[in-house]
Design a protein that fits this description.
This protein is of the alpha/beta class. It contains 9 helices and 17 strands.
Length: 329
């Protein structure tokens, strides 16, 4: 347990003489909640405060009442906390107690990073991993200047690299923007599973010479920090051009009328796929139409990238852990 990056002193500075109070809003049957909350608390004698299901108002109330110092969640949970803040919430006291905020499960929008830091005085530390990697593979370094948008570096005992479809290494050469070319993340280490139960073909496809291919596309900077681009399965191919939904989502959520957004590809006769943005609007922005967002997006993106279709919804479908279920949109 002491080698686990989410429970160790190297990451968060926690030890038996400095126990944390963890707010658990993640299901413990999931590896994120089990490892990053339960096991971390057990390892260092922390206190776990349980919430059966994530509800932003209830979570804020417990953070205040129980003097929570450690919060971990998926991006939509941070979005929910920020959206629930009003004059009745004692943000100053919650911020005074909160020492660590950690995120994983999916990409955290830069705008949520910024808002949370401004309101709570804590920069969210992003990590990355999968159930197949137990789950943590990389994490931001606690105590160092954060690199917003990065999932950090591999945890101790773990290696990561970028590969192409044929398992060849993607060159580390840094481009003009300070990052490498895009490749699929491959992971090797003691945390990687032995294989899928009773599925030898799936195991052979996923693991090669001890390396596990994640299905996530990323880039790497000169210091070895990784930046998720998108899931390879979520990538949209419009008219022969690769479009990464996360890139569009990062920009769209910065619009004052956009509270939450998911970008997907939908079938198109001539282009193969067309780009669609499904949006949950901010309150008091009824004057903004779908056509307004299409026009605004056209000004922000290259001609092949901007969403031609925008749909407003009251909410987006999510998993039990708060991930947006794009396949159900």
């Amino acid at each position: 347990m002491r080698d686990n990056a989410l429970a160790g002193t190297d990451l968060f500075g926690a030890d038996e003489s400095n126990p944390d109070t963890y707010l658990c809003v993640l299901p413990l049957f999931h590896s994120f909640g089990q490892t990053c909350i339960q096991n971390g608390a057990v390892a260092f004698g922390g206190t776990v405060v349980m919430l059966p299901r994530f509800e932003a108002q209830a979570a804020l109330g417990l953070m205040l009442k129980e003097q929570v110092t450690y919060f971990a969640g998926v991006p939509t949970m941070y979005w929910g906390l920020l959206g629930a803040l009003d004059d009745s919430v004692d943000v100053a006291t919650i911020a005074k107690n909160l020492r660590v905020a950690a995120a994983g499960g999916s990409a955290l929008p830069v705008d949520i990073h910024r808002q949370f830091s401004e309101r709570f005085g804590v920069t969210i530390l992003e990590g990355y991993g999968l159930s197949e990697t137990s789950p943590v593979a990389s994490f931001a370094r606690y105590g160092e200047e954060p690199r917003v948008g990065s999932i950090g570096v591999p945890i101790p005992g773990v290696e990561m690299k970028l590969i192409d479809d044929e398992w060849n290494d993607v060159p580390d050469d840094v481009q003009e923007d300070g990052k490498s070319a895009v490749g699929e993340i491959a992971i090797k280490g003691h945390n990687v599973m032995k294989g899928y139960y009773d599925r030898p073909e799936a195991t052979e496809e996923a693991i090669h010479d001890g390396w596990f291919r994640s299905g996530d596309l990323a880039r790497k900077d000169a210091d070895g920090f990784y930046y998720i681009v998108d899931r390879s399965k979520d990538m949209i191919i419009r008219g022969g051009f690769n479009v990464y939904p996360r890139e569009l989502e990062e920009v769209l959520i910065s619009h004052p009328a956009v509270s939450l957004v998911a970008v997907i590809g939908v079938p198109h006769e001539s282009h193969g796929e067309e780009i669609k943005a499904v949006v949950v609007k901010e309150k008091d922005h009824d004057d903004v139409s779908e056509a307004d967002l299409v026009t605004w997006g056209k000004e922000q993106f290259a001609a092949y990238k901007y969403p031609r279709i925008v749909e407003f919804r009251d909410e987006l479908p999510m998993t039990a852990t708060g991930k947006i279920l794009k396949r159900e949109i």
